[in-house]
Design a protein that fits this description.
The protein is mainly beta. The chain has a single domain, classed as Porin (Beta Barrel). About 5% of the residues lie in helices and about 65% in strands. The relative contact order is 0.22.
């Protein structure tokens, strides 16, 4: 039975084609948030994340993608109070692909811009996204993907007097590694 499954998998990979068209995907992974000292402490070192994305291959070397990442809440300590951080990210990216082995494997780099939101504080801001990854074409329609994305963003906080002289800048990052299943039409 194992040999038949391996043979079917190899035959399906032989017919893989990435010449163009739309795709959707769902991913799950872990991310790490670096607050750059904004909070007294973060109770969790890592958090789980779920992402949904849709895009279109222009050809087998370029694609564009819209991505939504929902991050499981963090608990932060700010001035001796516990604060729940409920973060989500929406990005638009361009991906440059390099297909290998008759398009069975694909490596890519990603660059884009987006919007990061913190629901409980009703705060939002701008972020870049940088990423790299690889995917394995299981069949003509399905790929398994392993990716790493980096989201750098800034946060400015005024001092207690509210004057512009006492603004603190925090350069924060979210590092996200995930695996996904992608369906191409």
């Amino acid at each position: 039975m194992k040999y038949i499954l391996v043979l079917l998998l190899m035959l399906s990979c032989a017919y893989a084609d990435r010449e163009g068209g739309p795709y959707i995907g769902v991913g799950y992974g872990q991310q790490k948030y670096n607050d750059d000292g904004l909070y007294t402490a973060l109770k969790e070192k890592r958090s789980e994340s779920l992402n949904f994305y849709a895009g279109a291959y222009m050809n087998k070397y370029f694609s564009v993608e819209l991505d939504y990442v929902k991050i499981a809440p963090y608990t932060a300590v700010l001035k001796s109070k516990n604060v729940k951080l409920d973060l989500s990210i929406v990005t638009v990216s361009t991906l440059v692909h390099y297909p290998l082995y008759n398009d069975m494997f694909d490596t890519y780099i990603k660059f884009g811009v987006g919007d990061i939101r913190e629901k409980n504080a009703n705060a939002k801001g701008f972020t870049f996204v940088y990423g790299l990854g690889t995917s394995f074409r299981v069949s003509e329609l399905i790929s398994i993907k392993l990716s790493y994305d980096l989201y750098p963003f800034g946060y400015d906080q005024a001092d207690a007097t509210g004057t512009t002289n006492g603004i603190s800048n925090y350069n924060q990052t979210i590092k996200y590694i995930y695996t996904a299943v992608e369906f191409q039409f």
